[in-house]
Amino acid sequence: MLKRRKANSIESSPNIIFNTHSPHLFNICAEEIFIHFQQGTFMHFIVSIPFDQGLAESIGKKGSEEGIAFYNRKEIDDVIVCLVPTDPDGKYYTVAESMMLADQVVLSTRNMGSNFGEALIAAGLLGKRVIFTNENDVSKFAKGVDYVVADRERVLEAILGYRPDKKAADQGNVVLIDRVFPVKGVGTVALGFVKSGRIRVHDTLLHNSGKSAFVRSIQVQDVDRDEAEAGTRVGLALKGLDYGEIDKGDTLSDRRIEKVEELTAALSMSEIGQEYIVAGRRYTLVSDFIVSEVEVLEFDESKNIVRFGLAKAAALQPGDEFLLLRNGIPRMFARGTVR
Q1: Which of 223, 242, 260, 286 has the greatest number of C-beta atoms within 10 Å?
Q2: Residue 104 domain-assigned (yes or no)
Q3: 173 Cβ partners below 8 Å, 6+ apart?
Q4: 47 closest CA partner among 92, 103, 100, 95
């Protein structure tokens, strides 16, 4: 049995090595995971695996795919959803999407090239917990990052051993939509994640257009549920909205979130390959399932406050975060928070 270690202990399992500066300092074993189940601390884990499809295949079964492939696994009442970009070279924004949505990021150290480095920078900007595979030493590169190192065969244990704080900013009940389609005899079905709050059967939610959608049923991992909490991958059967009226990146919420064509945000930028931001510069903004080209309208360098014009109106509200992408390296170079 692997025993729980105290903070700053230098002891570790021979297979899972924990960063001694991490707030999540414990070794994992099946017995400890079972204790979580006994205590009723069931979780939904959203994990980004941007550059190693094989790892995702070893963890879960492939489900839907549209830019990002979803690999799903159920462990008793815990659910793991792994997000894997299907074409990270051609559609690099999907790497940012997967990392924005995830609680944890798994990075293989078999190939520590530019993709690895850029993903590590983005994880640091977003404050994401990182799980490294143990093929190569990462200690020189991961300073300031909350991380663990695990055998490839024990990545699942590392994922399950993390109990993230799911308390989100008070934005009410919000569902992020990534896919919509019609089902004969059911009507409009929307797939997405519960971003905040709790969604229940028979709720009436508001689309960004202002139209109402009645939640006829909720499915989680193909099982009917009465409700779903923040962090849950859901399928919603809706009444009142046609599937053609909903786009990827839209939201359903208890308070209407109107789409905006301009926004003001505070930026936090990487110190590597610093960017000189001036009016007229164009970037790509990625916030969960929202992807839009943006143009800098104003920038206050002393406060790192920027005002953007969006090429495509987006459902963003104060407190929402995004990654900013450019053509240079690292491509994911800044995190923004909408004001």
Answers
A1: 286
A2: yes
A3: 194, 196, 197, 198, 199, 203, 205, 253, 254
A4: 103
- What does the alpha-carbon distance between residue 126 and residue 190 come to, in Å, rounded to a whole number? 27
CATH number at residue 325: 2.40.30.10
**Average confidence (pLDDT) over 317-337:** 97
Residue 56 phi/psi, 5-degree rounding, is -60, -40
- Give the pLDDT of residue 273: 87
Residues 147 and 187 in one domain: no
Q: Please check whether residues 65 and 138 belong to one and the same domain.
A: yes
Among the residues of 72-206, which ranges form H helices? 93-101, 114-126, 155-160
Which residue, 160, 189, 210, sits at the end of a domain?
160
Instruction: Provide the pLDDT confidence category of residue 87 given band limits of 50, 70 and 90.
Output: very high
pLDDT band (50, 70, 90) for residue 76? confident
What pLDDT, on the 0 to 100 scale, is given for residue 170?
64
Residue 38 has pLDDT above 90, yes or no: no
Same domain, 31 and 153: yes
**Paired sense of beta strands 223-225 and 251-253, if any:** unpaired
Res 42: pLDDT: 63
pLDDT at 3 over 90: no
The answer to whether 53 touches 62, Cβ cutoff 8 Å, is no
**Number of domains, the chain:** 3
Pair 68, 86: CB distance under 8 Å? yes
In a domain, 3, yes or no: no
Q: Are 295 and 252 in contact (CB under 8 A)?
A: no
With contact defined as beta carbons under 8 Å apart, do 70 and 85 qualify? no
| pTM across the whole model | 0.87
Dihedral of alpha carbons 332, 333, 337, 339, sign: negative
Does 274 or 249 have the greater pLDDT score? 249
